[in-house]
Design goal:
With 146 residues, the chain is of the alpha+beta class. It has a single domain, classed as Double Stranded RNA Binding Domain (2-Layer Sandwich). The chain has 4 helices and 5 strands; from the N terminus they run βββαβαβαα. It has helices at 50-53, 72-81, 108-111, 133-145, and strands at residues 16-24, 30-37, 41-48, 57-64, 86-93. It has a 3-stranded antiparallel sheet with strand order 3-4-5. The longest helix has 13 residues, at 133-145. The radius of gyration is 21 Å and the shape is globular. The protein starts with 15 loop residues before the first strand and ends with a helix. The mean pLDDT is 81.
Length: 146
């Protein structure tokens, strides 16, 4: 299966999952929702154009970190744009990069409207190698329950 991001989708933003909560609709129906926080970031760090790179794209940075957490090439790339050190960089391909400038902060009110459909993707934090832990816990529970 090949997954391609639509050029019509526009620029994206990055956030951190804060948790889950319940939303009550006016008719009393309960809807589970995910709360996403947007820490310092979502700043345009680079603009790629057809003339220089062969395609149009905007690179967005997210989540401020200390200088020592990044390599010198990463720091140099961000300093060139005049941006603060950021952990995550993501490139979004666009049909046109008009209206974007390096070090521009993306404002959510301008990007999204109420009722817009969005695509969300995430990465799990991982639990590492669990070994026999789950098997032993199940064995102990079965042993005590008879």
């Amino acid at each position: 299966m090949v997954v391609k991001m639509s050029l019509e989708a526009g620029v994206g933003v990055m956030g951190t999952k804060l948790g889950m909560m319940s939303f009550f609709q006016p008719n009393g129906e309960v809807v589970p929702v995910t709360v996403v926080g947007f820490k310092e970031g979502n700043i345009v760090t680079q603009i790629k154009t057809d003339a220089t790179d062969g395609y149009n794209a905007v690179q967005v940075g997210y989540r401020r970190v200390r200088d020592r957490k990044l390599t010198k090439p990463e720091l140099g790339h961000l300093e060139k744009a005049g941006a603060i050190p950021m952990r995550h960089l993501q490139e979004f391909r666009l049909q046109s990069v008009d209206g974007f400038e390096p070090n521009q902060r993306l404002v959510f009110d301008e990007l999204f409207n109420e009722g817009d459909l969005v695509d969300v993707s995430g990465t799990t934090i991982g639990k590492g190698f669990q070994g026999l832990h789950s098997l032993l816990v199940e064995f102990i529970i079965i042993s005590f329950n008879g």
